[in-house]
Write a structure and sequence with these properties.
Structural class: mainly alpha
Strand content: under 5%
Number of helices: 5
Helix content: over 70%
Largest sheet: none
Order of helices and strands: HHHHH
Length: 146
């Protein structure tokens, strides 16, 4: 297999795994704050995640392969993924769920990278930071729900 295609497939698999894990985390978090998360059927969710992760993987592959200094350009695929999920869950989700999905995916990716590269202190900082942020969000959600 050609090296570029193999690299793209690895990026796609990693993006798909992080996006799937982010959906699971989002579902758990929304059930903890008593905010019902409406998901599509498993097949449809897998299809949406596959398309969204392909966009992310293709964009990351282009940046890594051709313009390594343009890491800030990855905001565009993040916006495209947010748009894909907003369109797929148009009536069910608001921007709160979409932003949390991207936040969870980013945190899962950062945690995975920190653990793979042996940066355990950085992983703890990320984990504590996201716990504080989610605690604040949960507090506001409970406060404004009543």
């Amino acid at each position: 297999m050609h090296g570029a295609i193999q690299q793209l497939l690895v990026f796609w698999a990693l993006a798909f795994l992080t996006l799937g894990a982010a959906l699971i985390c989002l579902n758990i978090f929304c059930s903890l704050i008593d905010n019902g998360l409406e998901l599509l059927s498993v097949g449809k969710e897998l299809g949406v995640a596959g398309i969204a992760s392909l966009v992310e993987a293709g964009s990351l592959w282009l940046v890594v392969s051709f313009v390594p200094a343009a890491g800030r350009a990855m905001i565009i695929p993040a916006l495209i993924v947010a748009l894909i999920y907003k369109v797929a869950h148009f009536e069910d989700w608001n921007r709160f769920e979409v932003i949390l999905l991207l936040l969870f995916q980013t945190v899962i990716g950062c945690l995975g990278a920190c653990l793979v590269f042996g940066q355990y202190k950085s992983a703890m900082v990320v984990l504590i930071g996201i716990s504080v942020i989610l605690g604040i969000i949960a507090g506001f959600a409970k406060f404004f729900d009543t």
